[in-house]
Amino acid sequence: MSLAEPAALPVAASVPPRLHLLQRFTGRFKVSLPAYLLLLPSLVFLALFTYGAMGRVLIDALYQRATPKAPLRFVGLDNISAVLADPYFTGAVVNNLVYAVGTAIPSIGLALLFALALARTNVVTSALRAALFLPVLIPMVAASALFLFIFLPNVGLLDYYIGGLLPVVPNWLGDPDIALYAIMIITIWKNAGYYMLFFLAGLQSVPEDVMEAAHLDGAGPFMRLRYIILPELKPTFLFVIVIATLNAVTQVDHVFVMTKGGPSNSTNLVLFYIYQQAVEHYDIGKASAATMLTLAALMGLTALSFRTMANREGGP
Amino acid sequence: MLFSRRLMLGLAIAGTFASALALPALAEGPTEIDLFFPVPVDGKLARDMGTLIKEFNDGHPDIKATAVYTGSYDDTLIKTRASIKAGKPPAAVIMSANFLLDMQIENELTNLDSLIAADGTTKDQFLGQFFPALQGNAVINRSVYGVPFHNSTPLLYINADKAKEAGLDPSKPPQTWAELTDWAKKLTKREGDKVTQWGIAIPCAYDYCGWMMETLTMTNGGRYYNEEFGGEVYYDTPSMLGALTWWNDLINKYKVHAPGATPGPAVSTSFISGNAAMMMLSTGSLTYVRDNAKFAYKVAFIPRNVRNAVPIGGASLIIPAGLEADKQKAAWTLIKWMTSPEKSAWWSRATGYFAPNMAAYKTPDMVDFLNKNPDAKTAVEQLDVAKPWFATYKTVPVRKNLEDEVMLVLNGKKQPKDALVAAQKAADETLKPYNAETSLKLP
Fold first, then answer.
1. What are the protein's UniProt keywords (chain B) (predicted)?
2. ipTM, two decimals
3. Is the Cβ of B268 closer than 8 Å to some Cβ of chain A?
């Protein structure tokens, strides 16, 4: 009879509870009330400072003021089209894409390498892990101020050490062809240690027995990396890629400190463009429109990656 | 989401800050006022400012002034505007002298005429204390909007040891562009194709670059902008073309100036370390050079091509619009105290800026100081040929329209003529709405 018992369960579950709609609601509410209470402080902050601000930006994006003396005027989507037609904005988008790809790939690659090399815990690897993590602890503004002097042409540390090897000493931050890459170096240096942490955590979840079995089956280190470790690390990869992409858009401290978007806008990134529109051009309408576009792009990207992550759940 | 978390944190901090500012002042007790101040050059200005404000508070028990550090000149404009928008403007700001016009156009400044009249003085008497060259940036449409506080002119700094080494006489510094080019050639050292010592360094980073372009254009007989009206700049003119061509030649033809755009701190570091034998830099860096140079140095007038001329730099004290009457009065007291001969002389000695108040140079301490440091005299002597600092509607973007193009030239990516045509076009575009509202709005 034991076989019949499991079959009885779905039947019982399919009987709908005969409760009034309101009772059902309060019942559910009783269960979730503590949860809502716990979330309340964050919700208040989110509503005030995130959604409230976003709402304000949405409204501001619809208005424009031609000159200081002119009144604020409803212009609909004109600000959006003005931003899209602005070569400085499209330039910043292109710079940001180069920056995102150029910082994400090397820093994630380095992070994985570091994690694989330092997966075992002993005195040496602990010390090396700490050393590699150190840049994460330095505030971006401080790091940028340091690099400002490292990058000084002729008298900076970088040129002191490698200047002699190059045919022409580069003006790292003063040449529009190089400046963006110079800035990317800092980001990579700063983020690799951070992403390493996620990969170290990810490596812990690689099952020992599978590795052992593979070892016994004669799989070499490369085979094990290719067929066991990397597939196991897929969720970590996905997560780190999302973080790296968001960082590429939200980190502009170094641009602010080192180049102010220059020379000739070669290091202008989208967030810095928004800042310039708002505070240098004093053009709140255009700044809001650019913010809306950026928010939309980031939300789309995040939603896409969360979906991809959700789809992966349950799979091996 | 990381973005919203950062945004939230930023706004939370801003909110806390705003509410702290919003705390009502005590009904009894001194009037509390804030003074926003920037640190635009090398040195220890922030500490000196603390000393100055403490002395003011000790002498004025009815006022409690607090000095608030606000970053660079550009940052100070931004922070002041943000506070005005938030309805809690600081009582006084040390504001880059060339931002006054833009702020006046935006209705952000208090007209000081009535405060001057209330003291029983006339505008002419009040302005008469200051060097005439400084008045252009303080007066807009015949009304006083700013009080000159610390000002600068560009100077030519020369490493005298290196000049002697190259067989040049540092007591006879170059006076023309031709002579400067010649000096720079002799002061440039090469090992094969590599340069180990540059003849001259001229800064070009946002803000400094525009000022240096104005300097070179003026010594080439021209001008940068319309001094009477904020809607016109003269980027695409022969005098500016000549200036940019010469700067370009120093880099790309004579190879006596390092290529690319170099910020001010990099230029002063380069000069202090002996990597550059001459530099053009603000007199505001003079104290820094005096304290750090381990060699004999000399400061001289900016050499001319057509005429001797320099733009004014530095900052004026302003009172933002929208203040309560008691704070406005307290700010006015502070401003008059800070710009008095004794105080502006003290500040000048501490920073290297020159004192705008002419009487400052008659104070005994200042006479002593100038006898000991004759290099501090050059900027003052240069005032005879000084003219206002460029100021237009939307000064910063209009300035960047030029700077972006100049940077391309200094990197050898564009010819001076093409760059200036592009800069003029971009600036005209930025100025268009203002011109439509003013000069092009015909009856």
1. Periplasm, Signal
2. 0.79
3. no
